[in-house]
Amino acid sequence: MPVVLFALLVAASACAVGPDYATPDPANQPMPLSSVDMPDAEAAGVASGRPIVSDWWTTFKDAELDSLVARLVDQNLDVRTAMARVREARALRGVSESALYPQLTFNGQVGDQGRGDKFHSSITYLVGFDAQWELDVFGGIRRGVEAAGAALEASIEGRRAALVSLLGELGLNYVELRTNQRQLDIAKRNVSLQEKTLGLVTIRRNAKIASDLEVAQAARLVESTRASVPALEQAIAKNIFRLSVLVGQVPSALLDELGKPAPVPSVPPTIPVGLGSELLLRRPDIRQAERNMHAACANVGVAEAALYPQFSLTGNIGYASAGGLNAGTPQFYVGPAVTWPIFSGFKIVENIKATDARLEQAVLAYRQAILLALEDVENSVTAYAKETVRRETLGKAALEAEKAERLAQVQYKNGLVDFLNVVDAEGTLAAAQQQLVQSEQTLLTDLIAVYKSLGGGWDVFDVHLAEHEVQPSDTELPR
After folding, report:
1. Would you give the distance in Å from CA 378 to the centre of its chain?
2. N or C end of the chain, less CB within 10 A?
3. How does residue 11 score in pLDDT terms, banded at 50, 70 and 90?
């Protein structure tokens, strides 16, 4: 009879409580991006072709940036923390899987047993093994393993999402560094230009051709431009400090390496962004939300399994002695066991309701992640396209400001205009040049935001990081 019962329980274990999860199919959710069809987007080279975002930083053709990216992947502490979370989730999945196997426990006991007379006592020995194997008849344990597996996959997506974010932050700080260095160079050149003008006005004043007011105006312009230099130098230092920390080093580690000015990265001619539905397959935050939804679905089955009886096979074998080593006898037991909570104050029912609510939250979070991702792409593409137009306009304005400054200098030397025209022309030129550089920085920032919104960067290093995740950490723990 026990054998027949065991066979029936094994056959019944082919079923599992709770809903069966079905992965959403992105092909059934076509989502075109409206910003791609704008005239400004077309002029900026934005297209709906297959996105090339895996190694987006290489489109800037900057060897220093490539080097920083490689160091970030290997040394950034946030990346390593995310990898540790993956190892934790993998271990927890192993804990869940262990419930599918028999559990064996060793027991040993020895004591002095008295009989009411201090002169009459005996040594008692008890040695044996206990075994228990819970039969997953209704699939509660398997649902737990399923939930742990989905949680592991969600943690992997979390590590990927962290890498996407960190790569974007690295790119933004690097662009800002090179832009600040260029602005500093422009400021210093303008100071030199304005100092020459101040010298010219001083000579003319000494020759009774110019007034003291003109000298004061020229000196004010020089000092006003010179005042922008310390702020730019401070900004450059902050950029280098941040980049150093991003690659897992002390803030001052890259001062010598990055302190020397270098060109601002250039913008690629075309940017294919693809369709919105492709985000479901590429963006790690959406993939993570989908895996969390799977885990929540499986946990509903875990909660429902508590409604049903738990069947197990138990057994023990041992040796007991109550009067010395030679007086003991072996003992053993094997047989089925059942546990079924009849009443627990509606605890099980309320727990099922709670897991249902968590599943609903996970579904809504998944939908929200999709909407936020689409909004992210629309915003970044629109901003990039519009800034492209603005940069072209500012470029033309800077060229005209240079012409006006040169013309004002010539006319002033020939006595045709007042010196105030020179001051205005030089101030306008400095402002136009700074606006143009800031627009170029904004354009690059918007471009990086496009790449980030498309979920670019994680797949290049995925195999490399996965290999390191299964290895023990080399982090030195505090003692």
Report:
1. 20
2. C
3. very low
Closest-CA residue to 309 (of 3, 5, 4, 97): 5
CA distance 47 to 55: 18
105 backbone dihedrals φ, ψ, rounded to 5°: -130, 135
| Beta strands at 103-117 and 120-135: parallel, antiparallel or unpaired | antiparallel
Above 80 in pLDDT, residue 140? yes
- Quick one: tokens of 185? 């160079």
Distance between CA atoms of residues 191 and 406, nearest Å:
16
Look over the chain and give the mean of its residue pLDDT values, rounded to a whole number.
Answer: 83
Show Cβ contacts of residue 298 under 8 Å, excluding neighbours closer than 6 positions.
18, 21, 143, 144, 146, 147, 150
- Both tokens of residue 136? 């997953």
Share of the chain above pLDDT 90, in %: 35
pLDDT at 115 exceeding the cut of 60: no
| Cα 189 from Cα 407, distance rounded (Å) | 19
Residue 124: strand pairing partners:
111
111 CB burial (10 A radius; 0-12, 13-18, 19+): exposed
Domain ranges of the chain: 15-100+139-306+349-469, 102-135+307-340
H-only helix segments in 58-127: 63-75, 77-98
| Range with lowest mean pLDDT among 10-14, 143-147, 322-326, 461-465 | 10-14
Q: What does the pLDDT read at residue 326?
A: 52
CATH fold group of domain 102-135+307-340 = Outer membrane efflux proteins (OEP) (2.20.200)
Positive or negative CA dihedral for 382, 379, 387, 271?
A: negative
